[in-house]
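lol forgot to send this yesterday, sorry. struct tokens for the thing we talked abt
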């Protein structure tokens, strides 16, 4: 299958490329910059120049392929609502050229769209009061396009998609700890984050592409819920820094936006996803990955670039 991939040069997208190529697919990767285009070419991917804002480039890329995986997401969080609107328009554009084709279109959202404090399942609806409520508009596109003959599904990523070169929430915790001289958590730290290794995530994208059912939601979750306190304890051990509980208000003063997800209880199940697609995560868990130490080397995860899983 020839696959149009957005976010192709990103942390998740680059793993998806390896997974697709190793399983006999070919990839047409969206590239906004010369640097991204070069990276994709080296990876053995055909380059399609454009961006998430360039809707015509998205239509052309999607129309030229047998299926689409949409991992791209803007990293400009100064206007999160605007970023989510861009995402919805991108989905509409790509979906418009797939109507009636039964071709697969695999979307990405995050588990933070779910109601906190409950174990979210694939049947759980989105929570309009969630921190990622603005991204609900992307999930709404799933039933709308499924009714029009697009084999569309959505993968909900957990807040930690981990592995070498991660540059999302966990590296943000590490960077903040280095800057403050203390590893901060909120309350008692017993709120939980689900997690998955990016290689396992890439496999799920491929399975959703190949076997996904129109209108389905899949949870890309290997570990249902890791207490934040366990995560910060490992960070503190490797950085030789103390950990400190703070109120949500004080944590926000010290950490800014990061304090919000850091205080959310977001356990999630992937039981139905595993049953439907035969997906079985095989990689190390988050705590073991952190203990391997590469997260704390100077070249890994020190720059936070964006959150496709927000």
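and heres what i got for the seq, position by position
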């Amino acid at each position: 299958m020839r696959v149009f991939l957005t976010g192709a040069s990103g942390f998740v997208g680059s793993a998806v490329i390896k997974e697709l190529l190793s399983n006999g697919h070919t990839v047409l990767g969206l590239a906004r910059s010369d640097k991204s285009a070069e990276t994709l070419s080296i990876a053995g991917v055909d380059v399609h120049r454009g961006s998430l804002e360039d809707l015509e480039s998205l239509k052309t890329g999607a129309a030229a392929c047998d299926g689409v995986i949409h991992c791209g997401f803007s990293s400009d969080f100064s206007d999160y609502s605007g970023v989510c609107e861009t995402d919805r328009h991108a989905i509409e554009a790509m979906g418009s050229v797939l109507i009636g084709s039964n071709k697969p279109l695999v979307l990405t959202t995050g588990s933070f769209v779910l109601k906190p404090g409950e174990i979210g399942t694939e049947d759980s609806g989105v929570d309009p009061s969630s921190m990622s409520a603005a991204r609900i508009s992307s999930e709404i596109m799933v039933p709308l396009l499924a009714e029009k003959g697009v084999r569309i599904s959505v993968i909900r990523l957990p807040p930690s998609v981990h592995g070498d070169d991660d540059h999302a929430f966990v590296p943000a915790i590490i960077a903040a700890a280095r800057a403050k001289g203390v590893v901060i958590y909120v309350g008692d730290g017993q709120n939980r984050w689900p997690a998955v290794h990016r290689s396992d995530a890439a496999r799920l994208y491929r399975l959703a592409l190949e076997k996904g059912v129109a209108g389905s939601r899949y949870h890309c979750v290997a570990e249902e819920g890791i207490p934040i306190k366990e995560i910060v304890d490992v960070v503190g051990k490797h950085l030789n820094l103390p950990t400190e509980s703070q109120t949500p208000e004080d944590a926000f003063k010290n950490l800014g936006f990061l304090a919000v997800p850091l205080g959310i209880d977001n356990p999630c199940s992937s039981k139905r996803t595993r049953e439907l697609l035969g997906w079985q995560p095989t990689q190390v868990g988050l705590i073991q990955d952190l203990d391997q130490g590469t997260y704390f080397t100077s070249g890994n995860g020190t720059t936070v670039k964006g959150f496709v899983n927000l």
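The longest strand covers residues 104-110. anyway ping me if u want another try
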